[in-house]
């Protein structure tokens, strides 16, 4: 790792205020290790934080800076940043409700974890305390409940108007996104986590159940060797079946680990023992399947070994079969960190995120900085 006290003056504002691949995410590793990464923290606020509602997200701009500073002793700027986050959230909510009122389909960045309202909700839930009741967290949850309500055209309310990466001929009818980073598993995890912390709005349990039942419709495989596609096309939706192209790469962002964890949380929130135990068995089978794990190409939290390890470590708190895989996953990640090249900065895609996951699994201790709240993996 690079020196956290080294100059970062040559970096741009976007890098400084990024959880995904910049200073904000890197600072969390040093904070978790009990260090004070002064240069990184200063770089985050050296320029005005980006707080435009169309640009700021959990992983970029004011919410990302706020998420990082919430893990420090420097809470002075948080009051200002929280006002920015609240204003961004309310603006995004107004636009989302106007879109629903018009009958139009959403774009996934309206609601997803990485760029949308689920991500802002994740920050608000991380900051929630009994004496902080004036945040828009309940409004985010109420919006997500509304998002799950059936449409008259038979599509789920979260059906995205275009493709996973934008318009394209293969996505002329839009798509249904299942992943935790960009799809409906993210709202599912947030709604479930909020329920487990007694933060609820009318219809929340029903919304969790609706999402779970939709995921059941697209479950592939047999028995505990189940898996879910990352996306569903309009043609697949019409046919009622997904193309049999096999399991997605077993990642946090799109694959079985993230989807299983979201459903485990849902089962725990609903007191649905069969669902959360099934989710654990599916995850354990995924982790034991080398044809899936050999598709992992890097150490990252987003789509690599660190994401699998940390998801399994969190899910393993409720399932011994999942915990049995932790030593092997931990050793594999440690070996990859020793021998592979990886980006030196960032939580989602860089070495810091991988080292945070390795630290949690090695110490078997919940992160003091609560860094994994941005992944909706904490419990």
UniProtKB/TrEMBL annotation:
Keywords: Metal-binding, Zinc. CDD domains: LanC. Pfam families: LANC_like. GO terms for molecular function: metal ion binding. One of its GO terms (biological process) is peptide modification. Gene3D superfamilies: 1.50.10.20. Zn(2+) binds at residues 253, 302-303. The keyword Metal-binding applies. Signal peptide: none annotated. This is Lanthionine synthetase-like protein.
């Amino acid at each position: 790792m690079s020196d956290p006290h080294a100059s970062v003056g040559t970096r741009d504002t976007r890098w400084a205020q990024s959880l995904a691949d910049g200073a904000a995410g890197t600072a969390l590793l040093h904070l978790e290790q009990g260090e004070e990464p002064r240069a990184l923290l200063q770089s985050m606020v050296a320029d005005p934080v980006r707080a435009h509602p169309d640009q700021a997200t959990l992983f970029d701009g004011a919410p990302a800076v706020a998420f990082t500073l919430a893990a420090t002793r420097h809470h002075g700027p948080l009051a200002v940043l929280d006002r920015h986050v609240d204003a961004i959230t309310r603006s995004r909510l107004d636009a989302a409700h106007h879109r629903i009122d018009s009958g139009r389909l959403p774009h996934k960045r309206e609601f997803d974890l990485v760029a949308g309202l689920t991500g802002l909700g994740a920050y608000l839930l991380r900051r929630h305390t009994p004496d902080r009741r004036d945040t828009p967290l309940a409004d985010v949850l109420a919006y997500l409940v509304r998002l799950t309500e059936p449409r008259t055209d038979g599509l789920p309310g979260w059906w995205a108007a275009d493709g996973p990466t934008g318009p394209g001929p293969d996505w002329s009818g839009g798509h249904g996104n299942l992943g935790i980073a960009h799809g409906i598993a993210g709202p599912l995890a947030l709604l479930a986590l909020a329920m487990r912390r007694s933060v609820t709005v009318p219809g929340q349990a029903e919304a969790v159940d609706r999402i779970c039942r939709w995921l059941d419709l697209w479950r592939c495989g047999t028995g505990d060797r189940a898996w879910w596609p990352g996306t569903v096309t309009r043609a697949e939706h019409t046919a009622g079946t997904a193309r049999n192209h096999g399991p997605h790469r077993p990642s946090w962002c799109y694959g079985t680990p993230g989807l299983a964890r979201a459903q485990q949380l849902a089962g725990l929130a609903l007191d649905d023992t069969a669902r959360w135990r099934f989710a654990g068995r599916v995850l354990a089978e995924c982790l034991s399947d080398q044809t899936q794990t050999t598709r992992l190409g890097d150490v990252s939290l987003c789509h690599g070994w660190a994401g699998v390890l940390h998801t399994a470590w969190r899910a393993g708190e409720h399932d011994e079969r999942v915990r049995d895989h932790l030593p092997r996953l931990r050793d594999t990640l440690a070996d990859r960190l020793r021998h592979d090249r990886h980006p030196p900065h960032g939580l989602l895609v860089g070495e810091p995120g991988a080292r945070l996951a390795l630290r949690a699994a090695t110490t078997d201790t919940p992160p003091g900085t609560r860094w994994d709240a941005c992944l909706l993996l904490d419990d």
